[in-house]
């Protein structure tokens, strides 16, 4: 008996192995079975397969990344081309706008010049018409004045002498 008054504790054993021995024996049997069934090789194959799958995924990811970078480069190129094309369109539009403005200014100047000439022509025609009217009125007034003077100064005897002279002048003019 021990100092505490109890019988010494003995561990149960089977086939001369205690619990720790049995656990060790079970582990050796388990490891032996695993080696006999080629479990490490299967685990290695599974890991190799997993590694190959991961490599395949990495290769696919690298391929996709390369494709994405190529697409990005293509879209950047297209974007630059579109920006250049937009700049070209703006430049052409500005040039066309300048040409349209210049043509409009030229057309406006020509229209103003045509209208100025038309107005001058109308004014000239109105002046000529007014001058013609004044001359016609002056001629009518002069004719009335001449008729009035002739009627005042000439009587029937003077008219007969004037008519006779005119008739004799016509006759002598025929002979020549």
Automatic annotation (TrEMBL):
Alphabetically list the UniProt keywords: ATP synthesis, Cell membrane, CF(0), Coiled coil, Hydrogen ion transport, Ion transport, Membrane, Transmembrane, Transmembrane helix, Transport
| TM region(s), chain numbering | 15-36
Q: Point out the signal peptide segment.
A: none
- A Pfam family this chain is assigned to: ATP-synt_B
Which family does the entry's similarity section mention? Belongs to the ATPase B chain family.
Lineage, top-rank taxon, reads Bacteria
InterPro entries, sorted:
ATP_synth_b/b'su_bac/chlpt, ATP_synthase_B_chain
Upper lineage is: Bacteria, Pseudomonadati, Pseudomonadota, Alphaproteobacteria, Sphingomonadales
Question: What subcellular compartments does it reside in?
Answer: Cell membrane; Endomembrane system
Membrane topology designation:
Single-pass membrane protein
Q: Does the keyword Amino-acid biosynthesis apply?
A: no
Primary location = membrane
Q: State the species of origin.
A: Sphingomonas naphthae
Could you identify this protein by its name? ATP synthase subunit b
